[in-house]
Each structure stands twice: as C-alpha cells, then as structure tokens.
Amino acid sequence: MHLLGPSFLLLEYLAFSDSSLWKFEHPHTLYTWDGACVWIPCDYKIPGSKQMLENLTLYHNYHYDETRKDFSGTILYDTAKAGKTLPHQERVQFLGDKKSNCTIHIHPVSVNDSGCLGLRVTTKNDKWMEKINLNVSETPLSPHIQLPPEIQESQEVTLTCSLNFSCPGYQIQLKWSLEGPAVTSTLLTTKIVSTQSKLTFQPQWTHHGKNLSCQLWDPRAERILSEESVELDVKHAPESSMVEILPSPAKEGNKVQMTCVSPANPPPTNYTWYHDKKKVLGQTSKTFQIPAVLLRHAGYYSCLAENSLGTGQVGQEAELDVQYPPKEVTAVIQNPTPIREGDSVTLSCNYNSSNPEVSRYEWNFQGSWKKLLREVLIIEKVSWDARPISCAACNQWCSWAPSVSLDVLYAPRDVRVQQISPPSDIHSGHRVLLGCNFSSSRPRDVRFFWQKNGIFLKEGRDLTFDAISPEDAGNYNCLVNNSVGQTVSEPRVLQVLYAPRRLRVSIGPKDKVMEGKKAVLTCEGDANPPIFQYSWFDWKNQNLQHYDQMLRLDPVKVQHSGAYRCQAINRLGMGQSTPSTLTVYYSPETIGRRVAVGVGFCLAALLLAFWGVKLQKSWKKIRSQQGLQENSSGQSFFVRNKKVRRAPLSEDPHSLGCYNPVMEDAISYATLRFPVGDADAPITGDAGTPETEGPSPSRDDTVTYSVVQKHRVGDYENVVPESPEDEGIHYSELVCLGIGERPLAQEMVEYVTLKH
User: Fold this and answer.
1) pLDDT(358) > 90
2) In what order do the strands lie in the sheet with 440-442?
3) DSSP label at 236?
4) Max Cα separation, the chain?
5) What is the mean pLDDT of residues 740-747?
6) 3-state secondary structure 248-316
7) Peptide bond into 338 cis (omega under 30)
8) What is the DSSP letter of 577?
9) DSSP single-letter state for residue 210
10) Which has the least CB within 10 A, 11, 378, 420, 445?
11) Range 338-375 burial, b when 16+ CB lie within 10 A, else e
12) Residue 603 has pLDDT above 80, yes or no
C-alpha cells in the first residue's frame, strides 16, 4: 500500500511498467528492533497469465537515477546473483516463488536497516518497483494492553496484550502480572503482523487502582525486554467501612478529626455517623471534626457509606480516648540543708493525677535531661555550680514541676593570679604588683595567701615588688579559702627580663690542650630574653668575627694560646665575660723537630766559634813569627792540630783554675797545665800552683787542649735528651821554635775546658 499521492502513483506506474495489472499485498510498515529479525509476508500478481518472474532485487533506500534511467541503492538481495557473495546476501532469504509469493526474511536486522525497502521485480516483458517501510528501533518494542470500556466487580472480562511483531524462529513470550489463564496467538498475514496474548479473569474490588503489566519476555536470556502497565478501574459498591481517628488517643483540648474509610468506585456520595451506636445528627460528610475535644466526646464511633451502585456495611467501631498529662507535679528535696559540694542529694517527683498513668520521669539538672522509671533522683556528688532542678511526670505527655534550688556551699572557684602592673613585660628593677582574684565563693568570707615555688610567702590579696630582680622570677600561686575549703590557683610564671649577665668562658675538654686536638670555648651566661648574638675577642682585644655561642678550634695551634673573652647581646642590652686563658703546648712531634733544629743551630755556632778561634790563633802565630824574625832574641811558632783520645779529667797540684762566680749551675773555667820534667825547678804562681822558668831541655813541645762540654740539662723548654751526650774534645798543639835545642817530647798536657 502506497502513501504517495495519486498523481505521483500515476507517474510511478508510467515509469516502472507499461501495465496496470501488477498487484502487491504486504504490510505497509513492519516493526522490529536491533538484533531481532523481520518477516515480510508478500503476495504479487504478474500482468498476463503466462508470464513468469525472472528476477527479484531487494533495495535499501533506493532512488531513481535519471541518467541511467534505473534505480540505485544498497542491494540487500538479488535472485540473479544467488549463490554469489554479496555484503547482505547471507542474512536475507527470499521465501517466495516466481508466480505469486514474494515473502522475504531478514535476520538479523540493525538500526541501519530502517528506512525504505524497494522490491524490484522483472519479467520478460515487464518490470515493477514495490515500496515497503521498515522501522528498526534500538530497543525492543513495547507491548500494548487493550482494556474493555468498563470493568465491574465480579464480572468476567478479557484483556488483550498485543505486540506489532512476529518472526518465525525468533522466540518471544508475553507475560501478565496477574495470575490467570492466558492464550497467546500469532498473526502473520499480508495485512497484519503481530503477537497477542489474551487474559480472562474475574475482577474484585481489591483490583481497583492496582497496576496491570504485560511484559515482553526473552526465554533464552530469561530477561524482560520491555513492558507496559495500566491502572485497573474496577467499579463496585462501598465495602465495609471503618473509622480513622487522628490523633488517637486525643489530648484534651486538642482538635480531633475522624474519617470514614469505605472503598468504593465511584466514590461514596453520602455518609452516616454513629456515636455509641447513636446516630449523630447533621454529619453526612466523609470527615467528622471536633475542634476542642472534651471528656464527653470520648466513646465509640462508626459510619456507613453509599454510592450510585449501592450501600455499604457498618464496619468495626473506633474508640475515641480523651487523655491528659499528669497534673500538679512538684520536685521535693529529701535531705536536710545546707548542702555542701560533693554531698549526696535525694529528690522525689510527685503528681496529683494522670490519664493514662505515669510511665516515666524526667529530670532536668546540670543543663541535661535524665530519664528514670522511678520518681526518686539521687545525685551522688553534687557539683558546686548545681543549677535549679526540675522534674516531669510523663505518660504520653510530660508535665514539669517548678524548679527548686539546692543552694550548694563550695570553696572559692577560679582562683587566679593577675598581673596588675606593669601591664606588659617585666624588666629588672620595675615595680610589680600581683593580685589574687576568684570568680565565686559560697560563703563569701575568704582569706588570701601567697606561695612562690611551693613555699609560703605572705598573707594578703596583693603581692608587691618595689624593684624586682631576676631572682624574683618563678612560679607564684595564690590560695583562697573559706569555711568549706581552700583553692589554689594555677601557677603564674613570673618572667623578669634583663640584659645578659654573669658571662664566663668555659673551655672544653680543659683549658690546657695539646696542639692538633680540638678545643671548644663556650660563652655561658644568664639572660632573658635569650641571647641572639655572641661576639668573641682574643688577648689582643681583636674581634674574631665569630658570632655563635661556641668557638671551635679544630685543630688547635700553639698560636691559639692566650686569653679569650665573649660578648653577648639580647634585645635589652649587652654583657661581656672576664678573660679565660687557653694554654696550648707542643706535641712530642713538634718538640722533636724544634730540638733537632736547635741542636743543629748550636752545632753550627760551635763550629763557627771553633774556626774563629783557630783563625785567630793562626793570625796570632803569624804575628809572633813576624816579631821573632824582627827580634833576634825572638822565637817562632807554628800551630799543628792533633786529635787524641779523651783522658779523664783530674785535678792535680800542677793545675791553675779560674772560677766564674756568675754561673752557678754550669761552671766555665780554663785550666793551664805545665808539664814538669826531671830538670825543671817548680815555681809557685799566683794561685799557688807550680810554674816553670823556661823550657826544659828534655821537653819536646808544649800542648794546649781546649775542651767544650755541653750542659747536661735540656736547652729547649721541657726537652730532655734520652741519653747524655759525649763530650766533644778539640785540642791544639803548640810547638816552640827558635834558638836553642828542641826539648824532648813529653806526654804532659795542658787543658782548656769550657763548660756551659
């Protein structure tokens, strides 16, 4: 069936065929959903009784190409290409024949298949294009429920659930939400494609207003694909009535509303009310209101309803119970007064009457509520700030008694130390005034006392310091007592601010340190607020440009020896310490190196001195020889060096000694010894030692020895040689030259010894 206008149909007929005898019968529009299938029932009639169908092509969204004078579009199926691979050939089946049946089956279908299908049929002498509408939705189709025009109670009715879909081989079911016999049928003709289910049941008044559902069920996946619901409208006469009372029970004096409930369709149009089985005049509406209920309104109420289908029945009666809260409630203190803080207090809650009976009691004390089953309240330890207490006797409502005061006696509360002056920071030397305050006390007669660091100071409300010092800093408490007890305040920390003082330099680990170790100098002192800057000075009063509390010397050197002092600064001022001396002594390695250097210098000096003496003697010898040559009676000498083994030094009567009184520990002296021969005559000198008048004929020469002996005590600080050094002996031999015979050599020697 075509939706196009008659003129367009005529043009279509003229374009597609030369005959007007082509006839097609099929549903105008077919409905399905994505993933399902579609069955297109189709019949056709070819013009001329002897013609046969040669080819059938199924197009999707076809259009006529004026250039080609033919139709174009997506080809879903073509009988001429049966057996060949086409994109859609596998899911399209042609179930008809070449004479009259053009039924087509497509499985599966997709949303993209929605649109217009074109069935192009051709014979040897004729051709035709038939249009079929296909609607493919994304979700399964919803069923449709058909109800009869009117449903009455107890009259059997039949309900129909239909779905505009049917496809052989694709399993679906229609299910009802009501229990009852249901018959499912399928219509698959060239006019109608649908699936129907008919439910027959006898409605009751309880079905009225209920929802009736029909579900599209997938038996393979066991799930609901779609459903539709309708509300049943069942006509019936009023049922047995009942009365609803709000509120129930009703409180005396409150508004009460009673409602007659009687299910009916259509709704009841008239009501009759009864109080204790007596008709209430003037009440014909569904509700019965009492603005202020009284005890006389109490009793049993019932009602009767009627509509156009009939009159109902009087149902169960409802009781109106008029109640009231307990009356004349009072709270009574059972124990005698006065009451002190911490005492046990007993109170009772009494009332005169109540309907219904009292079921519980409530107490309001200390700002909180407490629920009890009994009328007695026991406070084990009453607090000092106990508020007035009230109680309530309760049934469904509560009645509160007037509050009663406990008048608790207690020690002073919230005792605190207050700094009266100065209002801000306390500096050393200020006048300071502290006061002792408290918030409350019962009784009010109190006494004040002061403590510092737990030690009693004085009695009185104020504490005064005319000129406060750092020693006055500490924790101060004030104590306030009355006849009930005594209360101590929280400690008030009194801080006295002052500039740095009592500064001193401590040296660690000790003030005498070996070089190469570590020395830490710490500036210790007392200040409030704390010191924020330190300065260090050495024994030359030079600023070391070090501003930490500790001065670290690591490694320490001998050059660091000396007196150090520190200077400290806070925001109130500056202070400085007295000098502390750091002594750094040499390490054994340094001492060894310096001794070696000293010994080297001494040896070099001695060597220079030796050569100096030698040169001087050589010079004197030359001068003497020159004098002898000028004077015939003179003598010539030359000096020859000789080394001999050292002989032990001994004193004998032939020695002369010169004592140096300046040197106490090391004695420097020179000894001149004259060897005496057999022919020599002794001569006594100034010191009482023998002398000779001239050279002896038997003496070969005169020998003078010089001995330099190093002092046995260490030269450098505390360096002591491990073993005594051997004396170094240097000597000179003087040979007499000149006239006369040369005397014989003798072993007698003369010594010159120098000790230091």
Assistant:
1) yes
2) 339-340, 408-413, 440-442
3) B
4) 199
5) 46
6) CCEECCCCEEEEEECCCECCCCEEEEEECCEECCCCCCCEEEECCCCHHHCEEEEEEEEECCEECCCCC
7) yes
8) P
9) -
10) 445
11) ebbbeeebebebebeebbeebeebbbbbeeeeeeeeeb
12) yes
**Residues 566, 576: contact at Cβ < 8 Å?**
yes
How many CB atoms are closer than 10 A to CB 89?
Answer: 17
Nearest to 204 by CA among 236, 177, 159: 236
Please say whether the beta carbons of 748 and 671 come within 8 A: no
Q: Which residues contact 49 (CB under 8 A, 6 or more apart)?
A: none
Separation of alpha carbons 372 and 358, rounded Å: 12
Write the DSSP symbol of residue 89: G
Average pLDDT (588-603) is 88
Q: Which two tokens stand for residue 398?
A: 């509560």
Which of the four pLDDT bands, split at 50, 70 and 90, describes residue 180?
confident
Q: Residue 397: what pLDDT? A: 86
**Residue-level pLDDT at 49:** 67
**In what helix (H) or strand (E) does residue 588 lie, and over which residues does it extend?**
helix 588-630
Give the separation between CA 483 and CA 410, rounded to whole angstroms: 9
Instruction: Answer for the pair 182, 198: CB distance below 8 angstroms, yes or no.
Output: yes
Is pLDDT at 276 greater than 90 in this prediction?
yes
- pLDDT at position 522: 95
Which has more pLDDT, 395 or 82?
395
Task: Quote the tokens at residue 731.
Answer: 């000597």
- One-letter identity of residue 243: V
Give me 652's structure tokens.
């004998």
pLDDT averaged over every residue in the chain: 80
Which two structure tokens, joined as six digits, stand for 237?
């006469």
Question: In the predicted model, is pLDDT for residue 167 greater than 80?
Answer: yes
- CA torsion sign for 511, 515, 518, 524 is positive
545, burial (CB in 10 Å: exposed 0-12, middle 13-18, buried 19+): exposed
256-273 burial: b if 16+ Cβ within 10 Å, else e = bebbbebbbbeebeebbb
Where is 157: in which H helix or E strand?
A: strand 157-163
- Tell me how far CA of residue 166 lies from CA of 36, 188, 202, in angstroms: 10, 7, 30
Torsion of CA 627, 629, 634, 637, to 10 degrees: 80
Residue 567 confidence (pLDDT): 94
